[in-house]
Amino acid sequence: MGTLCDFISRVPQRSTRTVIRFLQASPLLSVLFVIALLGGCKPSANPATTASSGGGGAGNAGNTPLRIAVIPKGTSHEFWKSVHFGAQKAADEIGDVEIIWRGPVVESDTGSQIEVVKNMITMQVDGIVLAPNQKGGLVDAVEESIGEGIPVVIFDSGLDKGPDIVSYVATDNYKGGQMAAKQMATAIEEKGNVILLRYIAGSESTEQREQGFLDGLKEYPNIKVVSSDQRGGDNTTSSKEKVDQLLQTYGENLAGIFAVCEPNANGTLESLRNAGLNGKVKLIAFDPSDALTEALNDGSCSGIVIQDPVQMGYQSVKTMINAINGEPAEAFISTGEYVATPENMNEEESLRLLKPSILE
User: Fold this and answer.
1) 65-171+310-335: which CATH architecture?
2) How far apart are CA 157 and CA 108, in angstroms?
3) Taking a C-beta distance cutoff of 8 angstroms, is the pair 315, 333 a contact?
4) Domain residue limits, the chain
5) What is the CATH number of domain 173-306?
6) 26-72, pLDDT tens digit by residue?
7) Which among 125, 197, 202, 341 is most buried, taking Cβ atoms within 10 Å?
8) What are the two backbone dihedrals, phi and then psi, of residue 64, each rounded to the nearest 5 degrees?
């Protein structure tokens, strides 16, 4: 009877569909379920009613900590490390919340990310906070999680329509792309040939940046996009190799390159330096790294569109806990977007976002 009671104690956290499947498995199980309830097996208090929301309160007072899985696109880049920092900061403030940080090493490994989500479902975590690396590829896994009674907050990069998620916490990436276009126009004095280096297909966040950039440049008739269909891939090496090829074709008459994410921008910077074109060909990046921040200082980079990854992790976890506590959430929560330049890079706001994990 103990095992059955354990199941019943989690009924408030499970979906109706799960309980129905359990009861339909055998008439005998249905009878035992009723006997267990009548015999004094009582469901434990629902965390949604026992947890305290708000800063400094307990996430699941008097019970085991709420387990929130935070699943990034990857785990190797500085951006994701800052997201982790923010997620843990929220958990520490709330109290009685355990962050399970797990994700693929390589950002393009959709299969591994799906496997992580499924493992978290099997573990029956209390909530999943996910940055899908493929907007369509993660839909079924998210649907499964929600069907099992595990709510999902999406962050950083959007998901195709379908799943009834709690909220989407992210940068306005389209606006960020427009800001990159404006900074590019300033850097090249509103004239010349430029390249848009894309990321990987299916990444909603970078697709929005790419489109924002292209649309933003329409305001500058003397700027020509000579290449916008090439992809740098998910790492610095592949990006460098792609930019090496592009420079062989366009280098002599090229004014600027926009790289839409950290590994692409790092690879582009390496390629420009190796070709002796850093500073001459203006680089606009999206997301900082130590190398890119240094490049801002020495003139090899003319601007970095910066997000607030610490706030992204923080708001995602806070939104999830509030939802578990029964509080409504906004469909979209913006964490802001900014541009760091050689001129403003030492100002407080730029420093905070260029080195988020240090200054937070």
Assistant:
1) 3-Layer(aba) Sandwich (3.40)
2) 13
3) yes
4) 2-38, 65-171+310-335, 173-306
5) 3.40.50.2300
6) 444 454 444 444 444 443 333 332 233 333 444 554 578 999 999 99
7) 197
8) -65, 150
Quick check: 96 and 58 in contact, CB under 8 A?
yes
Contact 288, 78 (CB under 8 A): yes
Strand ordering across the sheet containing 127-130: 97-101, 66-71, 127-130, 152-155, 167-170, 332-334
| CA separation for the pair 217, 240 (Å, rounded) | 24
Annotate 116-137 with DSSP letters as a single string.
Answer: HHHHHHHTT-SEEEE--SSTTT
CA distance 324 to 313: 17
Please identify every stretch of the chain with a pLDDT value under 70, giving residue numbers as ranges: 1-62, 357-360
DSSP-derived secondary structure for 168-214: EEE--HHHHHHHHHHHHHHHTTT-EEEEEEE--TT-HHHHHHHHHHH
Half-sphere CA count of 108, side-chain side, radius 13 A: 10
Helices (H), 253-330: 262-274, 290-298, 309-324
Question: How far is it, in rounded angstroms, from Cα 232 to Cα 269?
Answer: 12
